[in-house]
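haha ok so turns out i had the wrong file open the whole time. this is the CORRECT one, sorry everyone. sequence first:
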Amino acid sequence: MLRTSAALTVVLAALLLSGCAQLFPARGEPASSQPTVDEIHSRREAEALSNLLDFYRRSASMAPEELARRLDVQRKQLDKGRCDDARLRSAILVSRLPAHKRSADAEHLLGPCLEDPFKRYSDKGGLAMALHDLLITQVRAEEQANAAEKLAEAKKSLSEENAKLRKQLDGLKAIERSIQQRDKSSVGE
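then structure:
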């Protein structure tokens, strides 16, 4: 019985020591080879963000028709009120579309990603903020380009009107000179 008790004590001591080694690893050794839930989530977020950035890069070479077709597919996958990959992909596609092919709600597409403070400060939230700023900048640039075009048209129209008026003025001056010359010649007779 003493032998069994001694053997049991040795086995328990070995188990305790191996358990302590797992709980308190030596310096420089990882505590566990298994990733934590946060690490898994972080890796998934990084992979998803990497995929979205790759999609942004690939979308640069797509034709407007292809962008519009893919946007229709992505919009059907949107989950109301959620900041998901479909919403971010939709925003990426909208940012690549020519301005005249965008819908009026393009600026509001990323609302769910920007309204939730927890999402806003995540990696995807940062991408959503950058895309939102890009969309707003593109809309403002388009508005400024349209305004500049209208100003150029107005300038051209005013220049043409100015040329017509100058021609009429020159004609009136010529008539006035001829009247004055006629008056001088009739006075001199």
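The two ends are 161 Å apart (CA to CA).
again sry for the mixup
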